[in-house]
Amino acid sequence: MEIKTIDASQTWEIRHKVMWPDKPIEFVQLEEDNNGLHFGVFDQEKLVSIVSCFVGNQEMQFRKLATLEEYQGKGIASELLNFIFEVAKKQNLSKIWCNARSNKKSFYEKFGMIDTHKIFSKEGQEFTIMEIFL
């Protein structure tokens, strides 16, 4: 497994397949994608997990962390999160945060992220904002 910088367009297929398969692919294309940092985990030459990071005001928001179903449960997303946490530390950022699906909250808590209890819904999914100060 290898983590590499990728283009925004390389994230769309996995975002779509894993997160919003019932929506058109345009639904997972973010307006701010061109301003983000995008990372992917490759198994051989196959892209299997992705995340997009957006930096501003000394903070990093990561979005659309997704791993292909057949690769889930193998620690790949954890490796990717550890990688972007290191990126944030090297950039001397003060905070990392995300909009986590509420049913995935415990995953992010393993990394020291705290639930802010700022909850919202999107397309029938409940989200909560998780954060960690560096």
Could you give the order of strands across the largest sheet?
A: 1-2-3-4-5-7-6
The fraction of residues assigned to DSSP E strands is 35-45%
From the coordinates shown, what is the CATH architecture? 3-Layer(aba) Sandwich
Q: How many domain units?
A: 1
Alpha plus pi helix count: 3
Order of helices and strands: EHEEEHEHEE
Structural class: alpha+beta
Please state the average pLDDT score.
Answer: 95
What is the distance, rounded to the nearest whole angstrom, between the alpha carbons of the first and last residues? 27 Å
According to CATH, the homologous superfamily is Gcn5-related N-acetyltransferase (GNAT)
Give structural notes.
This protein has a 7-stranded mixed β-sheet, sandwiched between helices. The model has no long low-confidence stretch (mean pLDDT 95). The longest helix has 15 residues, at 76-90. Helix content is 21%, strand content 43%. With 134 residues, the chain is of the alpha+beta class. The protein has one domain: 3-Layer(aba) Sandwich (Aminopeptidase), CATH 3.40.630.30.
Mind sketching the topology for me?
Elements: E1 2-6, H1 12-19, E2 37-43, E3 46-56, E4 59-67, H2 76-90, E5 95-101, H3 105-109, E6 114-122, E7 125-133
Parallel strand pairs: 4-5
Antiparallel strand pairs: 1-2, 2-3, 3-4, 5-7, 6-7
Summed up, what is this model?
This protein has 134 residues and is an alpha+beta fold. Helices cover 21% and strands 43% of the residues. The chain has helices at residues 12-19, 76-90, 105-109; strands spanning 2-6, 37-43, 46-56, 59-67, 95-101, 114-122, 125-133.
